[in-house]
Design brief:
It contains 20 helices and 14 strands. It is α/β, with parallel strands linked by helices. The protein folds into 4 domains: 167 residues, Rossmann fold (3-Layer(aba) Sandwich), CATH 3.40.50; 156 residues, HUPs (Rossmann fold), CATH 3.40.50; 54 residues; 92 residues, Arc Repressor Mutant, subunit A (Orthogonal Bundle). The strands form 5 sheets. A 5-stranded mixed β-sheet has the order 1-2-3-5-4. Helix 10 packs across helix 12, helix 16 runs antiparallel to helix 20 and helix 17 crosses helix 19. The longest helix has 17 residues. The chain is elongated and about 105 Å long. The model has no long low-confidence stretch (mean pLDDT 95). The structure holds glutamic acid. Glutamic acid (GLU) binds next to loops.
Length: 514
């Protein structure tokens, strides 16, 4: 391949329901590689498997990619996002909410069936592919027998050897259902260099005569993928390792058509912490699920980027913005070994990015999550005010792994009437009398702090001074009275969030319990 050719990479998802976190990694690596090399990043849709199509998934996939900030320059866009200055905009016939932009369309496979048919006919003519009229029952029986004999299921080439030209024509005239299969060469080793995996070799004797055109007139992934990539002048194919077994079929197709083969990079599998393949059973795999849980896009991008790549030995940096990733990313540095999907790391990264937000930004992002919580819905109006919530967030900021956790560990902030066991108020072996006295002392101290001086810092300073050596005796009952909880942030922080009136109300109630 001409190394000076402009880089063109594509993300080619199938609209089957949700964006898998692994697909997001493919899209991100495509994006980073394109940006880094000054190339184009293209979005096309592989929807040849009509049975697996899920309504609305093209739209939600575009929205997820948009949400994380991966911009593409060509391919499929939501109508609402198209700038009028883009040339050659074509409204999709299949998906009314999207349009296709660019000179290499259609970018939706179901819209170019005649193109695939034209090319597959060329293969048949050249003897690289053949008609197969076998009925599904025959194929199933054959497969069952092969499996029983512990052989890999392979088509037995009945139609290649036993159906004459005349019969083929007769069958076609009679509209007999057929598929077109690729003819695998015998005894050949297909060898190539993968940008991630290095040299890879495949023996064609172990590869089935792949169906290229299905009986419904749709191409299979293999045929459509190769034709698209050629027509769209794709220079680098970046995709998950699960597609590696398809590589020899694709290389042969390029060869049969006489086309230049793009470079390939097969990205490592994503693994659960127990090293099994990442699956829905062990947790969320859809990008949408992470968005719903309140992970920030910066954290998701950072996390996904590190699934199979890092800037190299000796580098300790862990936080990377999208721009930094563009600068540092190298396809050659992607690892071969499976990448472990460690949710704890994602939580940590998310916590780091949350800490970087201003309180106003955090409030904007956190409000929809508060609104989903029962403790919030049941709270009084003053506890739903922006000022109150911003104080809660200020206290929670340093210990918030994700936005959906807001308020969860500190629900006492929102309570109208705290319920707790009186025993919780007691510091060690303290008598009732002493307990009452210490609570009254706290009440006195707080009463004497004016509203203007009601800051976290002042509260801390004054209460610490008053407590002197006997911290627990003053601060434990106070903290318990304010929170009704075994564990919570410090009494200074809690009193600051609650405000003077509510704090005094809670202490007064505690005194009445003793
Ligand atoms: N449609 C395939 C997928 O969903 C694309 C594979 C490729 O990039 O060749 O992952």
């Amino acid at each position: 391949m001409d190394d000076n050719k402009k880089v063109r990479v594509r993300f080619a998802p199938s609209p089957t329901g949700f964006v898998h976190i692994g697909s997001l990694r493919t899209a991100l690596y495509d994006y980073l590689f394109a940006k880094k090399t000054g190339g184009e990043f293209i979005l096309k849709i592989e929807d040849t498997d009509q049975k697996r199509y899920v309504e609305g998934s093209v739209e939600s996939l575009i929205k997820s990619l948009d949400w994380v900030g991966l911009n593409w320059s060509e391919g499929v866009f939501l109508n609402e996002n198209i700038n009028s200055d883009k040339s050659s905009i074509v409204k999709s016939k299949t998906y009314p909410t999207v349009s296709e932009v660019g000179e290499f369309g259609p970018y939706i496979q179901s819209e170019k069936l005649e193109v695939y048919k034209k090319y597959v006919d060329q293969l048949v003519k050249a003897g690289h592919a053949y008609y197969c009229f076998c009925e599904p029952e025959r194929l199933e029986k054959m497969r069952a027998e092969q499996t029983a004999e512990k052989k890999a299921p392979m088509y037995d080439r009945y139609c290649l050897h036993n159906v004459s030209e005349e019969e083929i024509n007769k069958n076609l005239k009679n509209s007999c259902p057929y598929t077109i299969r690729m003819k695998m060469p015998e005894g050949e080793i297909i060898e190539t260099d993968d940008l991630v995996r290095g040299k890879v070799k495949f023996n064609t004797d172990l590869i089935d005569d792949q169906v290229l055109l299905k009986s419904d007139g749709f191409p299979t992934y293999h045929l459509a993928n190769v034709i698209d990539d050629h027509e769209m002048e794709i220079t680098h194919v970046i995709r998950g390792e699960e597609w590696l077994p398809s590589l020899p079929k694709h290389i042969l197709l390029y060869r049969y058509f006489g086309w230049e083969v793009p470079k390939f990079a097969h990205l490592p599998l994503l693994l659960n912490p127990d090293k099994t393949k990442l699956s829905k059973r062990q947790g969320d795999v859809a990008v949408e699920d992470y968005i719903k849980k309140g992970y920030l896009k910066e954290a998701i991008i950072n996390f996904v980027a590190l699934l199979g790549w890092n800037p190299g030995a000796g580098e300790t940096q862990e936080l990377f913005s999208l721009d930094e990733l563009v600068e540092k990313f190298e396809l050659e540095k992607v690892h071969k070994a499976g990448a472990v999907f460690d949710l704890k790391k994602l939580d940590w990264l998310n916590g780091q990015y949350i800490k970087k937000l201003s309180i106003d930004e955090l409030y904007e992002k956190a409000l929809p999550f508060f609104e989903q919580k029962d403790f919030f819905r049941q709270a009084g109006a003053e506890k739903k005010s922006p000022e109150f919530l911003k104080r809660v967030l200020t206290v929670e900021l340093d210990r918030l792994p994700k936005l959906s956790d807001v308020g969860e560990n500190n629900q006492f902030f929102f309570a109208t009437d705290l319920q707790y066991d009186k025993a919780l108020l007691r510091w060690k072996e303290m008598s009732d009398d002493d307990l009452k006295k210490t609570l009254e002392k706290s009440k006195d101290i707080l009463e004497n702090i004016s509203q203007d001086n009601w800051s976290k810092e002042n509260l801390e300073k004054i209460l610490m001074d008053e407590a002197g050596e006997k911290r627990g005796e003053l601060l434990w009952p106070l903290r318990a009275a304010l929170t009704g909880a075994q564990k919570s942030p410090s009494p200074f922080e809690v009193a600051w969030v609650l405000g003077k009136t509510e704090s005094l109300k809670r202490i007064t109630k505690a005194i009445s319990l003793v």
